[in-house]
Structure formats: structure tokens, C-alpha cells
Design brief:
With 543 residues, the chain is an all-beta fold. Helices cover 2% and strands 38% of the residues. The protein contains two helices and 48 strands. A six-stranded antiparallel beta sheet has the order 9-8-5-4-40-41, with no helix packed on it. Strands 37, 39, 42, 46, 47 and 48 form a six-stranded mixed beta sheet that branches. A five-stranded mixed beta sheet has the order 2-32-31-28-27, with no helix packed on it. It is globular, with a radius of gyration of 22 Å.
């Protein structure tokens, strides 16, 4: 790309901006200077290990496979014999990692962890585009690959767990359809989804890695480009069409913003409400002009919509700064961390500049216009294209990746290939909040629960206890890649009144969600939150 840059400010959009920003402190910690690969994809497993992988088609990584093992792949473009790893398993507790073996190309793929805790990863590039790979979280397990398990090629697709435990796989490059995994019969096919044709922009696409969320009525909210539908995947019909996002700018790859389903609350109500928040992205036309050496400023807006409302409308708010390729991480207390990304350009090779180093926190329940909290702590490592971020059980956020180049480049470039891992500790982990931080004493981690089950929770709070400020939240750890966390879902559980039992301990009753439509079967992280300060999580399985 040429070095002369034209930074364009688009005309003011004709809707109401409200913004007020406060500041808070977070903390960064370098965990690993190098894990040998770029963390392009991440999934936290229920054994507190994180499966990380990159791609195989660029050549050799910086991590040698153990025991003299090598990949032999005649389909590879560069290294047909490759004795380096392209996937690792990171152990959070010991801050160590081990190499994993992946045979076919997993570049720009998708996945989700299913009910038994297995990571099911789908698609990729070249010889991996119709492959399904599984990873079982056990001490010495490795990837297992099932070739030709997908009906069509899946590259830049989005996955979501359904109430029956299957995954739906939506879209991908030149794929205007969806399919399911696992297959229920040999007759399973790909089903047309015209919405993906309607949201396709010539020369830019802007509908890859669509934002998909399971709504509380069992239908899917699907956002691509700049608009959304509510989709009944059982009978292949559009239930409703939502208003176009204000301003009309794209938010999906390569004009990459991010999105979250905001916390689901009041789960025992007759009509549970659901809201979606979409932040960042690039203005329309930004991707097309990059070849001319022009970088547009990233969008600085978030748009929020109540998708269950009979007459839904977007509410637009302004971030402290524009971001493209930003990740959005649901925090245990219901807030949203906005992290990674750039202030200029789009996703893609060499397409962005101006790294945004300071995270933002979006206060979900704050008043409109006062929801953003700028974290004063900045990383020194730009996290540009192909960066990732996932929440850990202890409340930290694991951050890795960044490689805006077609291969690994470590010198003579503005943003070198980044092989490091960091942890960002949000402000709630500040030691000054230790007296308020709950400790979960009961139930035990790895407890198995059923739907609509009442169970006893016992916590310890050593400081001043405020009984009406206690929440119990349940988070589905997502599969994260390309600025979108697939299957990310936080539920606020119904609780009874806490009763003191001595020694700074308190007991109360908690009720799990009533159905798999609210919480698809999976392992979840369970947190106690007191005065917005979360405990460490414990693992539960609901099915």
C-alpha cells in the first residue's frame, strides 16, 4: 500500500449522539513473549486451558512439533513438509503451552464448544475448507480431523450452538447458505439464505463472519453488513426484518466491528427481553479505497437494539474513539470490554494503521450517554488484524495475535507479526476491591445441573456485605476470531435473599435457566457478583 494517506471524516450523521466518558484503571501483564504461533483463533475449555490456532498455508511457524513429527501435505502452497506447529494449548494455571498437530488448513475458520466440552471446529482454507476438527480437553489430547464432513466450503463462516446441541454454520465466502453439524442423516444439505445475497457488497463483501445470536424465542438474530433479520432456521423463513443500522455503514468483515448479546435477565418472566450491541467498524467504501492508499477513520459509534421489542429501534452512542477490528468481551458483571483494533482502515492484509491501545468498558446498565469507561492502562503491543481476546475463569482477559501480513514478518514493517500473549485485568481486579470480592464456597466446580433447577450457593465476602447488590451470572465461553466471539452468552440467574451464616459467609437459592432455548447445553462459567465485583468463576455443566 502506498504511504501517502488521506484521512477522511465523513459528514455528521443525522441522529442523536450522546457521550460522556469516565476513566478507570486496568492492568496489563505479559504472559508469554512468544508461543510460536499467531493467536488467530481462541477457545477457553472447561479445564482452564485455551486452544489457540493460526493457519498452515504461509510456511513455517516459530514452534517445532515434538518428537520429530511433521506435516506432509502436497496441497500446501509453500511448505509441503512442515515440522512446525500451527496450534497450541495454553495452560492458564501454569502459564505454559504445548504444541498441537493440525493437518489441514484452519485459516479463517469457525467453531464452538459443545455440550460434552469438545471443541468442534469447522472449515478453513484449501484442503481444510470442508473439514471438521474436534478437540477433546484432556491432558494429552490432540486434534482429530474428519474430512469432507461439511456440505460446502466454509471460510469466514459463523457458528452457533442450538437448543438441541447441534451447531448451525452460517455463510462464508461465496456461501449464501447454512448447514448443521453433526448431520442427522446422509440427506442433510445446505439451505439457501437469500439474506446473505442481499447483504453482499460487490468488491467488499461486508457480510462475512455475520453476527449471530440465539434469541429467547428460539429464532436466530442474524446481522450482516448493516442490517439484521430474525430467522427461523427450522422452516427456513424470515420472521422479521429489523431497521437498518443508523448511518448505513457496514459492521461485518472486512469493515469489521464487533457485537454482543447483552446479558439476559429476569429469566423467569413470561417474556424475557434480549438486546444486541454492535460497536465499531469502517465507513462504507473504506475497503475499496485502500488500494489507492486511502484509509478512512474507523467508526466511533455503537448501536443497541432490543430485538424482542414489537417495534425495535437502534439507540446510537459514541465511543471515546473509533475502532475497527475491535473485540467485545462479556465480563462477569455484565459489562462489555472493548479491546484490540485500529483507528484507521479495515481488516485485511496491510489495511490498517493507528492501533488503539486503550480498552473501553461499556457499562451495560448505565444511563444512555454515560456508559463508556476509558481504561487508563495501555498495552505497548498493537493488536491489529488477526488478534483475539477471551475471558478467563479468574476474570482476566487473555489477549493475543496480530499479523496483518501474508506470512510471519518480524522486522522492517510497521506492525510486526505478534506471537505474544498478554492478560488484561479489568478495574474490578484491583486489590482495593478484595474486601468486596465474593468467594464461591458452594457449589463445587464441575457441578452438573439441569434446567429450572434450584440449588444452594454459599459465598464468602470479607468486607461490608450489601445483600441487594448480589448477582449470579452464567457465561458461555465463546470461540473468538476476527473480532467476533461466537456463542458468547451471559445470563443473570434468579436468586433468593442471602442469609448470613457466620464467618462472613452467606447462603441463598439460585435457579438455573428454564430451557435450552435460554441456555443451550454446554459448560458455563458461574460467577457471584457483589457490588459489581465478580468472584472467580467455577465450571458448571447444564444439560
Amino acid at each position: 500500500m502506498t504511504t501517502h494517506l488521506l484521512f477522511l471524516l465523513l459528514p455528521s450523521l443525522l441522529f442523536h449522539f450522546l457521550v460522556a466518558t469516565v476513566t478507570a484503571n486496568g492492568q496489563w501483564q505479559l504472559l508469554q513473549k512468544s508461543i510460536g504461533i499467531v493467536a488467530m483463533h481462541m477457545q477457553l475449555m472447561h479445564n482452564d486451558r485455551v486452544v489457540i490456532y493460526d493457519r498452515t498455508d504461509f510456511g513455517l511457524s516459530n514452534l517445532t512439533l515434538p518428537d520429530g513429527r511433521c506435516r506432509h501435505d502436497p496441497n500446501e502452497r509453500i511448505a509441503k513438509i512442515d515440522c512446525t506447529a500451527h496450534s497450541v494449548e495454553y495452560d492458564v494455571a501454569s502459564n505454559t503451552f504445548r504444541a498441537l498437530f493440525v493437518q489441514t488448513d484452519v485459516w479463517c475458520s469457525s467453531g464452538s464448544a459443545v455440550a460434552d466440552g469438545t471443541l468442534i471446529q469447522t472449515g478453513g482454507f484449501n484442503d481444510g475448507e470442508r473439514t471438521v476438527r474436534t478437540f477433546n480437553p484432556c491432558p494429552n489430547c490432540d486434534w482429530q480431523e474428519i474430512n469432507n464432513s461439511l456440505v460446502v466450503k466454509r471460510w469466514y463462516s459463523t457458528n452457533h450452538i442450538l437448543p438441541d446441541g447441534r451447531q448451525i454454520i452460517i455463510g462464508g465466502r461465496r456461501q449464501f447458505n447454512y448447514e448443521f453439524y453433526p448431520k442427522t442423516s446422509t440427506a442433510d444439505k445446505a439451505y439457501a439464505l437469500p439474506f446473505l445475497i442481499q447483504t453482499y457488497d460487490k468488491n467488499a463483501e461486508n457480510n462475512l463472519y455475520p453476527f449471530v445470536f440465539l434469541n429467547v424465542d428460539g429464532n436466530l438474530f442474524i446481522f450482516a453488513n448493516n442490517r439484521a433479520i430474525l430467522f427461523n432456521y427450522k422452516n427456513n423463513s424470515v420472521v422479521r426484518t429489523y431497521p437498518t443500522i443508523p448511518g448505513g455503514d457496514p459492521r461485518c468483515y472486512p469493515s469489521t466491528g464487533s457485537a454482543v448479546l447483552l446479558p439476559l435477565r429476569n429469566l423467569q418472566a413470561q417474556n424475557v427481553e434480549a438486546e444486541v450491541l454492535i460497536c465499531g467498524g469502517a465507513p462504507r467504501g473504506a475497503f475499496e479505497v485502500i488500494r489507492k492508499g486511502v484509509l478512512f477513520k474507523a467508526l466511533n459509534t455503537c448501536a443497541r437494539i432490543k430485538i424482542t421489542d414489537p417495534n425495535p429501534n437502534w439507540i446510537v452512542e459514541t465511543m471515546p474513539k473509533g475502532r475497527v477490528m475491535n473485540d467485545m468481551v462479556m465480563l462477569p458483571n455484565g459489562d462489555v470490554l472493548i479491546i484490540n483494533g485500529a483507528g484507521l482502515g479495515t481488516a485485511g492484509w496491510e489495511n490498517a494503521m493507528d492501533p488503539v491501545l486503550e480498552p473501553f468498558v461499556y457499562k451495560t446498565n448505565g444511563p444512555v450517554g454515560s456508559r463508556f469507561e476509558l481504561q487508563n492502562s495501555s498495552t505497548k503491543i498493537p493488536r491489529m488484524y488477526h488478534s483475539t481476546a477471551v475471558l478467563l475463569r479468574d476474570g482476566r482477559v487473555l489477549v493475543g495475535g496480530s499479523n496483518p501480513h501474508e506470512r510471519y514478518l518480524f522486522s522492517k514493517v510497521m506492525f510486526p507479526t505478534e506471537l505474544s500473549l498478554e492478560a488484561f485485568s479489568p478495574n474490578y481486579l484491583d486489590p482495593k476491591f478484595s474486601p468486596l470480592r465474593p468467594i464461591i464456597l458452594e457449589p463445587a466446580s464441575q457441578t452438573h445441573l439441569t434446567y429450572a433447577q434450584k440449588f444452594n450457593m454459599r459465598i464468602q465476602v470479607n468486607g461490608q456485605f450489601v445483600s441487594d447488590s448480589v448477582l449470579v451470572t452464567m457465561l458461555a465461553p465463546p470461540f473468538n476470531t476476527h473480532s467476533f466471539s461466537m456463542n458468547q452468552r451471559l445470563l443473570v440467574l434468579s436468586t433468593g435473599k442471602p442469609n448470613g451464616t457466620g464467618n462472613s459467609t452467606y447462603e441463598f437459592e439460585v435457579t438455573t435457566p428454564g430451557s435450552s432455548t435460554l441456555a443451550p447445553p454446554a459448560f458455563y462459567l458461574l460467577f457471584a457478583v457483589h457490588q459489581e465485583i465478580p468472584s472467580e468463576g467455577i465450571w458448571i455443566k447444564i444439560q
